[in-house]
Amino acid sequence: MFNYVVRRSLQAIPLLILISFILFVIVNNAPGGPLGPYLQNPHITQADIERLSRNLGVTPPPGVPPPVWFVVRYFRWLGHVLTGDFGWSTSNAEPVLDAILQRLPATLLLMGVSFVVALGIGLAAGIFSAVLPYSIWDYIVTVFAFFGQSMPVFWLGLMLQLGFAVNGIPVGFGYRIGGLPSAGMSTLETFNLGDRIDHLILPVITLAFLSLALYSRFTRSSMLEVMGADYMRTAAAKGLPFRTILLKHGLKNALIPVVTIVAISLPSLIAGAVVTEYIFAWPGMGRLFINALQQSDMALLMGYLCLVAVLVVFSNLLADICYAWLDPRVKYD
What we know:
Layout lengths: L1 H27 L7 H4 L6 H10 L10 H17 L5 E2 L4 E2 H36 L4 H14 L3 H14 L2 E4 L2 E3 L15 H35 L2 H8 L4 H38 L5 H10 L3 H29 L7
Antiparallel strand pairs: 1-2, 3-4
Helix pairs in contact: 1-12, 5-6, 5-8, 5-10, 5-12, 6-8, 7-8, 7-10, 8-10, 9-10, 10-11, 10-12, 11-12
């Protein structure tokens, strides 16, 4: 297994280089390109644009074809990145790496809690539906799952803000459920666990809802297939408790396709975090990305997108490792 992890890690290096080159091409060919932040100045002149183009290295030297110079620019950028220099953020007036590292913990907190909630409730709901197939409870979970899969993240976030933070939901006798924070990560200047949990509730529900519904459906389908297997009937014939049969023999095998879905859904979780952070004013990388996009901060966009690419590649590697743990028949060496 160790040799496989090392081999896959080494294979990820050329893949990440290829991804970074594609991102470099896309970002530099976006409207404005590297000069985007400066072109937003209404008083800029053509002479200023030409001077900035030369100073930023966009204009190729005399005698160098533009395609060749573009490749040279990419390898210059890559060389700086390998030393930890992602460039200067024009929208935040600070190094890109500092801007990302300052906001990365907030995003990891939101994504981590949302992932745990979605996976925990999704697995429990899927197992519950598989144990009671085609019952009223199974239909309720199914309706809930389809509702979650078709729910736009931005609409759900706004409705939760309206229902639980602004107006509240009436429950009778003049009482309303509400009072949760509608934005931000904390109210108090010092860390307070209760205050942090209050601010996490609505963003976590918004971000976890789609993944929760997806995990529950695939868990149900996989569990139904596993529960009809011969080894499950053999375990029951031996007189083992139903809980042991379900969780020890059934769930471990049923999780193999679910692991694939979890790995594939990570980009959706990251994309959802961008929208969720913007709606709830969460001080993470999602808001940083949107601000960089609005202000054509190309260096910050490249830094953010490259970090997302690393997370996606790492999640797929982690999924392969989980396969070997769940199914001893999987051999990588």
